[in-house]
Amino acid sequence: MKYKYLRILALAAIAIPLCLCSCTGEKKGGDTTAVDINLPTMTLDSQDTIIVDQLSTEFIEHLKNQEYSDAIAMLYYLDPDSSIVPLPRNMAIRQEQIFRTFPVLDYRFESIRFRTETDCQVKFNFTFSRNAEGKDYTTSLYLQPIRRDGQWYLTVRDSSSPNGSASKIEN
Q1: Cα–Cα distance measured from residue 126 to residue 68, given in angstroms and rounded to the nearest whole number
Q2: 17 within 8 A of 155, measured Cβ to Cβ
Q3: What is the pTM for the complete model shown?
């Protein structure tokens, strides 16, 4: 019950790309990469996948090493004018609180999905707690990269962002 309350509180606090989903002790199969090609709305090449993978992995490694300020420094925000700006201070403070509440003990890459330059998703599953019997408590972390003028950014969105949290990507 305690974890459920924290999960709901965390989701309400960030309201976007770092969506923390239901806790579970189950582990699922291997790594997969999903590329959404049903509606090709942007041109991609292998470099895009490599760059997004490197950015995302660097970000979650900072979290795993408890380098919260380094992780937060990698996050950007798509403001109401559709400009990509560094994460505003109030959002950075909320993100750090969430990262400290759900520390990354271990993680597993799940998928990358590209849809449009402002609607992409990287998913990691990560362990945030282990009990005395060795049972892992896991959740998912969703990053939403945005490509602007050929450069990729890891962004945080909320209800005031132009895209809000209304991604067309189905989980």
Answers
A1: 16
A2: yes
A3: 0.69
